[in-house]
């Protein structure tokens, strides 16, 4: 059975709190796992959330500030310690290669797993698999930062009433799906386009073109909202978003499920982030992330 969900490992920004670990997010996409921004403490959060090293197929680091990457050393070593039976691919800003190398080889360990490095040097596609295309877009932060988006290829949804009208049933349904036509009946005659699902991950950034491009039409957008709206000047100065800004992006992009995260330790009431997001006009599904929750992707439309 396919599972598509976000496992939230940590939701703090620069400073962790008693209730919020540094960043960490695992996207389960059917049989694959994509780990985003493993901050300090990610290994322990994985244990608490029931996430194993074997679940990780791909690692995506948005930028090399500590709260988004200091856990990388431990995660990589754990992957090797557990002898994960498949290669793991790592994506990160190419300009931070020296930081990735330092984290990868921070201490001595035995390498048992192939770690494939595919850094992002510019906007574009990083990987194409049968299940999704992964692309990166440049964001606006004091250090180079990239956001990521997974998009599933469009498929076809079979229409029972049209199949019945053409007398197609049983094994012939599978045959027309595979071959594209059967007895003069085209696949397009008995089906409709099923839009592929999409997921976007946007961390530390000001408003910029990359934010809007990543969010456009997304089923789920995970986006930083470090500050509340009254601190918008502080957000701009430090290269971050407010809850209201993130919500406006989501509303304008037609996002179905908005996940706010990466909260400054200065705020003690998480409800304020939801209130400001709603006040900004977002009326879709909304989650103010907490550590160790699981958020399913919206059902297909």
Class based on secondary structure composition and strand pairing: alpha/beta
**How would a textbook summarize the main sheet?**
7 strands, mixed
Distance between the termini: 19 Å
Task: Going across the biggest sheet, name each strand in turn.
Answer: 6-5-4-3-2-1-18
The whole-angstrom Rg is: 21 Å
Q: Beta-strand percentage?
A: 25-35%
Indicate the overall shape. globular
Oligomer: single chain
Let me know the number of strands: 18
The averaged pLDDT comes out at 97
Number of separate helices: 10
Which stretches of 5+ consecutive residues score pLDDT under 50? none
Helicity range: 25-40%
What series of H and E elements makes up the topology?
A: EEEHEHHEHEEEEEHHEEEEHEHHEHEE
Describe this structure in words.
With 301 residues, the chain is α/β, with parallel strands linked by helices. Helices cover 26% and strands 26% of the residues. It contains ten helices and 18 strands. It has helices spanning 42-49, 66-69, 72-81, 97-104, 160-165, 171-179, 209-215, 232-238, 243-253, 271-279, and strands at 4-10, 24-29, 32-36, 58-60, 88-91, 115-117, 124-128, 133-138, 146-151, 155-158, 181-182, 185-186, 191-194, 198-202, 220-224, 257-261, 285-288, 294-296. The strands form four sheets. A seven-stranded mixed β-sheet has the order 6-5-4-3-2-1-18. A seven-stranded mixed β-sheet has the order 7-8-9-14-15-16-17. A two-stranded antiparallel sheet has the order 10-13. Strand 3, helix 1 (42-49) and strand 4 (58-60) form a beta-alpha-beta unit. Helix 3 (72-81) packs across helix 4 (97-104). The radius of gyration is 21 Å and the shape is globular. The chain starts with a strand and ends in a 5-residue tail after the last strand.
């Amino acid at each position: 059975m396919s599972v598509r969900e976000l496992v939230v490992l940590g939701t703090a920004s620069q400073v962790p709190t008693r209730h919020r670990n540094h960043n960490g997010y695992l996207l389960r996409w059917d049989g694959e796992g994509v780990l985003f921004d493993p901050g300090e403490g990610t290994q322990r959060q994985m244990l608490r959330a029931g996430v194993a090293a074997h679940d990780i197929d791909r690692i995506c680091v948005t930028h090399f500030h500590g709260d988004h990457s200091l856990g990388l050393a431990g995660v990589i070593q754990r992957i090797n310690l557990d002898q994960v039976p498949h290669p793991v691919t790592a994506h990160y800003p190419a300009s931070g290669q020296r930081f990735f190398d330092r984290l990868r080889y921070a201490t001595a360990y035995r390498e048992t797993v192939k770690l494939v490095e595919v850094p992002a040097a510019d906007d574009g596609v990083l990987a194409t698999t049968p299940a999704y295309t992964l692309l990166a877009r440049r964001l606006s932060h004091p250090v180079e930062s990239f956001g990521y988006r997974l998009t599933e290829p469009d498929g076809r949804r079979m229409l029972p009433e049209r199949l019945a009208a053409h007398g197609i049933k049983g094994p012939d349904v599978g045959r027309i799906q595979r071959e594209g036509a059967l007895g003069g009946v085209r696949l397009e005659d008995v089906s409709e386009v099923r839009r592929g699902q999409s997921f976007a991950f946007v961390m530390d950034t000001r408003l910029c073109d990359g934010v809007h491009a990543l969010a456009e039409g997304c089923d789920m957008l995970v986006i930083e909202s470090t500050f509340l709206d009254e601190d918008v000047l502080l957000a701009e100065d430090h290269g971050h978003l407010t809850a209201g800004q993130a919500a406006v992006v989501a509303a304008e992009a037609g996002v179905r499920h908005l996940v706010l995260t990466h909260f400054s330790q200065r705020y003690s009431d998480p409800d304020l982030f939801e209130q400001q997001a709603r006040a900004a006009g977002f009326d879709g599904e909304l989650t103010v992330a907490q550590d160790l929750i699981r958020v399913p992707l919206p059902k297909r439309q």
